[in-house]
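can u do me a favor
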């Protein structure tokens, strides 16, 4: 609970419509968690996932959003997330992209993820330099 995470993600195949990012507060026996995602195309989302339910995008009226702060089509990105004290915050390359308040989950496990998207049959990324620290 109450953590900051950072990871470097390398997009090995240059695909722009895949998504990747960080997960937090995954519940032990269910598919309930938050994920903070971005795409190389400059889009992002902070999402609440609940077992058997459609994902709820907590940003941009339940839609993917675009940010000029995300440099498009870079070889790699440094993604950060703060999950704690009822707030979820996404950072990309040191820039604060967005922040939302939600306290549905307040503890659980963390992780990294990649998603190939609906129109791509694969996603090839590498995660490196993962760091997790306690929020103060």
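np, heres the sequence
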């Amino acid at each position: 609970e109450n953590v900051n995470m950072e990871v470097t993600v390398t997009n090995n195949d240059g695909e722009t419509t895949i998504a990747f990012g960080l997960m937090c507060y995954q519940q032990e026996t269910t598919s309930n968690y938050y994920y903070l995602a971005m795409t190389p195309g400059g889009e992002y989302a902070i999402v609440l996932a609940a077992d058997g339910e459609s994902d709820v995008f907590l940003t941009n009226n339940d839609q993917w959003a675009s940010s000029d702060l995300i440099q498009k089509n870079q070889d790699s990105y440094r993604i950060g997330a703060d999950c704690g004290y009822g707030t979820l915050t996404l950072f990309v390359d040191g820039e604060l992209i967005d922040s939302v308040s939600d306290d549905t989950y307040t503890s659980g496990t963390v992780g990294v993820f990649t998603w190939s998207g609906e129109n791509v049959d694969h996603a090839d990324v590498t995660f490196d330099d993962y760091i997790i620290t306690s929020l103060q």
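The first strand starts at residue 3 and ends at 11. hope that helps!!
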